[in-house]
Amino acid sequence: MAPVKKRKAEPKPVKPETSKKKKGASSASDPATNVSDWTLSKLPLQGEWHDALSQEFGKDYFIKLEKQIKEEINNGHEVFPPSNLVFNALNSTPLSKVKVVLLGQDPYHDNGQAMGLSFSVPKGLQIPPSLKNIYTELSSDIPGFKSPGHGCLQKWAENGVLLLNATLTVRAHNANSHKQFGWQKFTDQVIKVISDKCSHVVFMLWGNFAQSKEKLIDLQKHTVLKDAHPSPLSFGKFKGCKCFSRANDALKKKGMEEIDWKLE
């Protein structure tokens, strides 16, 4: 791992509060969703990541991205997740702590679901079908794993699993609606930074979309595990892939600490 310059003040991971909200409650009244707060370059970003990515904020595509999000909100659309959780994946897993990258496509788009971590929803919400299938595979792959009864993967994020969506925002109730906004240029740069600055990271690429990102990764330095997506449509191919134990085996071979996948 190359040394990474650290800033003095680093934001702590922001965990969405769900205990006081009813299931399906709208987040429109949250201060974090105000148009004035959608200044992406000013949102809290962990110091190592800020140093590695700050040059992106001044690029034309990023300025246009921010403008498009503000236009969405000005036109009366809700945008998920709240602005304070847009960079939750990066804030929860500092660059120097990344051991595994689990790449998703875009945030969940129903009320209260999106928390800035791929495949994850806050405690108290129904577990999405893909995550149920992930838990099923974990139960057969990792000894002692039991479904935790919730869908929050924050523990993984804080233990070295970067839960990165390729697109970091979405219009409420409209899947993949921000796909063309430019987020993928930003998250492609995140992948490139990891490939360049880190050593022996395991990239878990599920499905054709995630696997298209393999070209961004230095295969001489890192391990890429390619498997089917755990959605109900392809679970038959995902089942039995043992990707979680394979990821740990790859880390162990490089003398690195394995991931504790248990969530109880």
SSE string: HHEHEHHEEHEHEHH
Count of helical stretches: 9
Shape: globular
Structural class: alpha/beta
Low-confidence stretches: 1-32
Task: Classify the helix fraction into a percent range.
Answer: 25-40%
Whole-number mean pLDDT: 88
> How would a textbook summarize the main sheet?
4 strands, parallel
Radius of gyration: 18 Å
Total number of strands: 6
**Beta-strand content estimate:** 5-15%
Distance between the termini: 31 Å
Strand order of the largest sheet: 3-2-5-6
Keywords:
264 residues, alpha/beta, two-stranded antiparallel ribbon, globular
Describe the protein's architecture and organization:
- This protein is 30% helix and 9% strand.
- 39% of the residues are buried.
- The chain has nine helices and six strands; from the N terminus they run H-H-E-H-E-H-H-E-E-H-E-H-E-H-H.
- It has helices at 47-53, 60-74, 88-92, 129-141, 154-158, 183-197, 207-211, 235-238, 243-253, and strands at residues 79-80, 100-104, 161-165, 170-171, 202-206, 223-227.
- The longest helix is centred in the N-terminal third of the chain and has 15 residues, at 60-74.
- The strands form two sheets. Strands 3-2-5-6 form a four-stranded parallel β-sheet. The protein has a two-stranded antiparallel sheet with strand order 1-4.
- Helix 7 (207-211) links the parallel strand 5 and strand 6 (223-227).
- Residues 1-32 have low confidence and may be disordered.
- The chain is α/β, with parallel strands linked by helices and 264 residues long.
- The protein is globular and about 50 Å long.
